[in-house]
Amino acid sequence: MIRLALPIYVELLTAVVAVGVIDLLWVAGLGEAAIAAVTVGTTVEYLAYGLFLAVPTGVTVLVGRRDGRAPLGPVIRTGWVLWAAFSVAVAVPGVVLREPLAALFGGSAELTAGFLLVSLGGLPVYFAQTLVDGVLKGRGDTRRPMRHAIICNVLVVVLDPVFIYGLGMGVQGAAVATVVARGITLAVALGSVPRLRDDGRTRGWEVVRTGLPMSGDFLARALVGMALVEIVAGFGTAAVAGYGIGQKIMLAGVMVFYALRQAAMIRTARGEAVRSPLLLGLASGAVVAVVLNVLATPVAGLFTGDPAPAVEFLRWMTLYLVPFGGLIAVGGVLQASGRGSRLLAATLAGFAVQLPLAYGLSAWLGVTGVWLSMAAGAATSLGLSLERRRARVPC
Fold first, then answer.
1. Which range marks the domain in which residue 377 is found?
2. Which of 99, 152, 376, 378 has its CA 20 to 30 Å from the CA of residue 93?
3. CA–CA separation, 23 vs 16, rounded Å?
């Protein structure tokens, strides 16, 4: 599990975290409006990817189930058909509505709209790359997706200054550099896709249905995160800044859990032993919590002159990270064994507990109440995910 998960962790850290951070670092010299535009643009792209996530996840699971047992061609072909459909359904409205979208988030709407024009227009390239990586993961190969993510980030580091400053494109240049880097990476990655055979077929709904719980989980967490920002904003700018910085720091640790989930999902889909995902997830949560507590003050100090709010957030997150680690790791088994809808139901039930608690406890305990509600929601989701089919989830 750990050997399979390690390349996934590197891939997630570079693909999900680094690209946005690299763009932010390069546009920082253009001022706060440019930073805000890139932040909003990458957030919108993140949500758009959540809509498509059902496809690469479903392809990974179905390829894993078929590899060595049945032709892979029908699944891969169906994945590409769904890629085309989602690319049109998400990218075209996004580009057309980029200005209203930019206006929703305030700041410099013109800069944000310019960034969205390129980033949302380039979504088909991003979606295609995740689909190729999904096929490889289904076949038990997590190293090549890691290499693809590293190649893409190296290209972004090189291309960002060329487009932003060298060609004078400013904020929009950051989006162009990312799309070009993803395009080159996709060209390299396409050589990894196995040749198709024409026998058999897979219905598109089967792929979407298999991956839909993962997509639903992703989008639900994004929406709840937005709701928490609104609650925290009531306690002032310092609280919001501390929450934002703390989340960025915590994300590096949380990616460990998602790497374990993908590893468990791949092994389960391929019919391989998974051993103890719950114990591994809980132990990983405890280790991540300890590391973040040790590094909280020096790392938060890199982002701000007043690290106290972020450090307090990370201290309280100890109660959240342990059950959350267990939940995410177990989720891989449930997803691949056809019980993803049960996991999604448990996740939504946890949020149904978390949000009322966030409002109620924050009125009593201040912003600490929000952090406690996160721990309660994660614990509730974990308990429900195990209770539904306790005997069939390896602990």
1. 211-392
2. 152
3. 12
